[in-house]
Amino acid sequence: MRAQEYNVGIYCRLSVDDGTNNESMSIGNQKSMLVDYVNKNGWNIEEIYIDDGWSGVNFDRPDFQRMINDIETSRINLVIVKDLSRLGRNYILCGQYTEIFFPSQNVRFIALNDGVDSLNSNNDIAPFKNILNDMYAKDISVKIRSALYAKARRGEYLGACDPYGYVRDPKDKHHLLINPDVAPVVRRMYEMAVNGYGLSKISKILNAEDILCPSDYNAFRNHDPADGEFTPICEWEDSSVRIILRNEMFIGNMVQCRKRSQSYRTQKIQWNPKEDWVIVNDTHEGIVSRELFDKAQNALKERTRIIKRSDEPSLFSGIFFCKDCGRRMAHHVRYVSKGDYYSCGMYRDRGIAKCTSHHVNVSDLYELVLADIQKNVKLLQWDEEKALDMITTSKYADEEKQIVKVRRELSTQKKRQFELDIRIKKAYEDNVSGKLPDDLFRSFLRDYEDERASLKGSIRASEEKAHTLESNKTDASQFVKLLKQYTDITELDRPTLLALVDKITVEEPAGSAGKRREQTLRIHYKYVGEL
Prior knowledge:
- By secondary structure, the chain is an alpha/beta fold.
- It has 4 domains: about 5-150, Resolvase, N-terminal catalytic domain (Rossmann fold, 3-Layer(aba) Sandwich); about 165-300, Hect, E3 ligase catalytic domain fold (Alpha-Beta Complex), CATH 3.90.1750; about 305-385 and about 485-530, no CATH class; about 405-470.
- The protein is built from 16 helices and 18 strands.
- It has helices at about 25-40, 60-70, 85, 90-105, 125-155, 185-195, 200-210, 215-220, 240-245, 290-300, 345-350, 360-380, 385-435, 440-470, 475-485, 495-500; strands at about 5-15, 45-50, 80, 110, 115, 165-170, 170-180, 255, 260-265, 265-270, 280, 320, 330, 340-345, 360, 500-505, 520-525, 530.
- A 5-stranded mixed β-sheet has the order 2-1-3-4-5, with helices on both faces. Strands 12-16-17-18 form a 4-stranded mixed β-sheet.
- The chain starts with 6 loop residues before the first strand and ends with a strand.
- About 25% of the residues are buried.
């Protein structure tokens, strides 16, 4: 009987995780060993496939896929590797190839050092070796992730590329220095946001001025002039502007571990919850100040409207609200002598059934707000001590009551969360010991888990509320310090208004719908609220 002729595909793989200092695992060693074995058996070496620097968990390796294609076209009918770990370290996919794909293609498979040969029937050890190889990959993944998290917690920059606005320190690649070429662009973006420009408008301005977006800028820095003139291929988008305006990295804080791979077996990336991000303060010099950053965040939340006539944000855009329904006041442009006016956004969209007009002329609003600011400036100039006393006496007591109430709620919620953890643990123990039947156990566990998930959201909301109350707590001295910058104020502009005022509300007295009655305007100032 004539012996079968084999056209052999030799497959070699090495990754960084396997240890490049290990000579026995080197590509050269694998290739030499397998070529000698094939030649001794008198087989024909059809092709040698090499994936150098590729993880065994990932099967989308270029030469591995080339080998699969050659198998499907019947170019090779025998695959040989040094050992099973060279084929891969994902025991599920390794099993699919060795137990299903290779046999279905009539391909013989040999893992030389593991004594695995699909021509024989004594390969029962192969699945166990694949599991051990997989466990090794998982262990390496855990160790690498732990090492990276440790570096992140120390504030070391771990990104593959320089973040926009920064360059890595030549003396320490984990430390960032301001990039003078593009840092002004970042500052300008924050200033535009504070002045009421939306994400779309900012991106349009940057594109109109041919300012390179982050990906193109990185490509430009690495561009070789010998390849010809650099040609941008991307544009600024709302999402890229939002990422920059939301990132604390630009105030000097290192923000990392925002994303992670789902598992060591897949390269699919998913976002971590914000509470799992690693944020280390003051690791490098900030491009913008904390004050400018916070103002930009508030401006983004307000999502200011743009007047089509001038393509600029209106003076009160994003800070003027209807007190009765909570909606923003909509700015209406008039082309006649009466001038522009505001009306309730809910009324404009849904009519009298949902709210009333709350009509306010822009000129009247302007005069009232300017007069109130000037009144406070005069009070400060006349008697600063009296002004401070007036502010603090009326506001501190109410704020403290609110903070105490929220903290008490938060304490109750955390206590209940602790009780649920104990009950879940006891339910498991009772079920294992036979005290709690399976059906009741599943019912209890479902209820406990549902309540715990709901409670987690409530705790997060309470913590955010407490933080907001603390952050917005009356600080009369800060307000006085701020007001002193405007002692000669005679007119309003948008930067001045946004610096002094958090929001303005308008309300109509009960029963005033449809009647010409006075409305109540309330101005909420920075640091102190309504005065």
